[in-house]
Amino acid sequence: MAKWVYLFKEGNADMKNLLGGKGANLAEMTNLGLPIPQGFTVTTEACTDYYDKGKQISDEIKGQIFDALKVLEEQQGKEFGNVDDPLLVSVRSGARASMPGMMDTILNLGLNDESVEGFAKKTGNARFAYDSYRRFIQMFSDVVMEVSKSKFEKVLEGIKEAKGVHDDTDLDADDLKDVIVKFKDLYKKELGTDFPQNPVDQLMEAVKAVFRSWDNPRAIVYRRMNDIPGNWGTAVSVQAMVFGNMGNTSGTGVAFTRNPSTGEKGIFGEYLINAQGEDVVAGIRTPQPITQLEKDLPECFAEFMKIANKLEEHYKDMQDMEFTIQEGRLFFLQTRNGKRTAHAAIHIACDLVDEGKIDEKTAVLRIDAKALDQLLHPTFDTEALKAGKVLGSALPASPGAAAGRVYFTAEDAKNHNDAGERVILVRKETSPEDIEGMSAAEGILTVRGGMTSHAAVVARGMGTACVSGCGEIKIDEADKYFELGGEVIKEGDYISLDGSTGDIYLGDIQTTEASISGNFHRLMDWADKYRKLKVRTNADTPSDAENAIKLGAEGIGLCRTEHMFFEPERIPKIRRMILSKTVEDREEALNELIPYQKGDFKAIYEVMEGHPVTIRFLDPPLHEFLPTEEEDIIALAEDMGITPEEVKETCESLHEFNPMMGHRGCRLAVTYPEIAKMQTRAVMEAAIEVNAEKGLNIVPEIMIPLVGERKELKFVKDIVVETAETVKQEKGSDIKYMIGTMIEIPRAALLADEIAAEAEFFSFGTNDLTQMTFGFSRDDAGKFLDAYYKNKIYESDPFARLDQSGVGQLVQIAVERGRKGRPEIKLGICGEHGGDPSSVEFCHQVGLDYVSCSPFRVPIARLAAAQAAIKQADAKK
Ligand code: ADP
Ligand code: MG
Ligand code: MG
Q1: Mean pLDDT of all residues in the chain?
Q2: Which one of 279, 321, 854, 874 is separated from 162 by 20 to 30 angstroms, measured CA to CA?
Q3: Is the domain 242-340 a CATH 3.30.470.20 member?
Q4: Where does the PEP-utilising enzyme mobile domain start and stop, copy by copy (predicted)?
């Protein structure tokens, strides 16, 4: 027979998968001999079984729950459901990883109309007994039956008002009896049945509610954001009650062994006298700092400190503890490794190393790589934020806090920024033409587009805060205003954005600059010591590249060349190139572009000081460069000596039904070899010149995008080689160069051995590879992904977290076959996934040489790569 239920004394801290974090730690603390109210834990497997059985708790599980309850009754010397002296329990949820959004705890379960009288008599404290019962009714109704807590609070408020008192503690036994009658009426009115009187029913309903809460919408969203699989399930702990609401020598509180926001050493916490459970965090009464306990109940405080230190010593990490004092007796109800800010996490990890409690590797494993984002971007001043009004919320597309005046076009944003204003660019969605306005902005807000929309990708690259996909906004770009959260925001008005949470605020909220401490560098040095993967960056401009180098990038894995063409002097030339009718005209236009492109490459090579730079040749469909505004069309027509109608006609002829799968990537070079020639010349001349000027030894890496066939790559490669050799001869240079390709079409992955015969390196373009493998475009995925999450078809966004089973398999195949075709082939990844920790771990496992990600994600990738290497080494032991 399977074991579904464990007494606390049967478990330990290593059983988190089975008992959940809370249950495992309650067991561990029991074994340490700490004062823990006893109880038992129903396993996460029982939760999974509940779902497997069509949301039924099997008789076997029920039986084991009752057996454990028997043992608990014996331990406590009380009977569950006894009317004179009832055993009361709490029912608590706990998954492997602590998960806000899961079910709230139910306290005082086991009381009913009859036993509350016995309980009053037995404890000699009627006020306390009725207070416990009214709390139970409220919690059970809210948590199990989903009748909103606020309805009960309103009743309670009414009674307090009628009596003219402010605090719950000012209500006496008779008042509370009255509360109970009114609560039960409310229950019946809302649900049509009486409040359940049978304690066994109460218990089983509560257990089921915990299981159900695993799948509530809040929990599902939290899991998706934190990479928690849906099949883990939650455990349920049932524990004998202790009471903090028995009078002035009782109380309840929470405390951390170190400060969770700064990381500073020293006890940090709060407690409330004569209170139960969540009163401390509910904000009904103002709690006392934990140090006050030393004055109120010195012996309790001394014992509390002793246990707190013991727990930190035992777990070798900062602890977050919950405790209750019942008539001067201290009980611990929970301990766990405390959540902390990234800043505190690093501070604590370094301190623990210095205190000799953990080693460097453990310190590296302790930091949540994703959270490093917090350190690299401005945040809002906490006090100022409290006063801010939230207008709405959307996707947290690029982290950081930003405040400024609203402008609706890239041009306005740039001009006002040039004039010294802080600006926020608000657009329906952004396009490559908006680049300058985006880089001028403190923050970007879009109405449409997901986490991998143009705005999101570019903003992350620049380290600019971005909130995307705010569908609630009603925007009028022509008249320059938008409506959100009941406010009308006009051009020039201040708003503030939190790109880490997605919140949008009214007004100019003060921000605090990012600051990287010495501890950060210490931790990063440790990470660099253990990682095997190299970390490069995706950078298109010298300033992006410079940023990335500061954050530890070891090269550029993806330098896109298309963004270089959007500047005002350049775009007319590329448009002329596109509209040219003859090769000669096209070459002429391209020749005019060479100096610009060469200048860009030189500037990037200079910043990179000899680190490798992979330059990708032109990739997007040409129509992205074409004019849409009437005045641009007229200007272009004049420039080319043709009529505006002719321009429009040609533009229309370039229309594509599905640009993502259209005339783009290496197909451009196959149809217009002149483009590849021009780009090759620019790359080679830039490298030769910088090598001479700076005494460097740059080996240009030229990357041909969107290849699906060996001959296709060979065709473009021949053009590149021919041009490169010509340039070498012209300049009398013997510079080396490499030619490689992106793997972003499934066919290329499957035929990687053939393709490797022509390619010296592969870079996995996992954005396109994901689109092509799933068969949907990332720009349209936002329209249906939510329904996929809701119906549990997908657990996470495949554009944010690499789909290891599908897309990952293609990567693996390409790695194996690529190495077969060319054993020394260099392998990297340059999709957005290169900065996602779980995807970085995958890259480590399949044996890539490097990951490349946006500059501000470089530290995340360095840390994630180290964690992957340490975990793999540990697993081998
Ligand atoms: P959460 O996971 O939200 O922290 P908990 O299960 O820890 O929920 O319960 C919240 C609070 O309820 C605890 O901090 C504690 O104050 C109170 N509580 C839970 N179980 C008991 C118990 N057996 N006796 C007394 N108080 C309890
Ligand atoms: Mg808790
Ligand atoms: Mg691509």
Answers
A1: 93
A2: 279
A3: yes
A4: 421-502
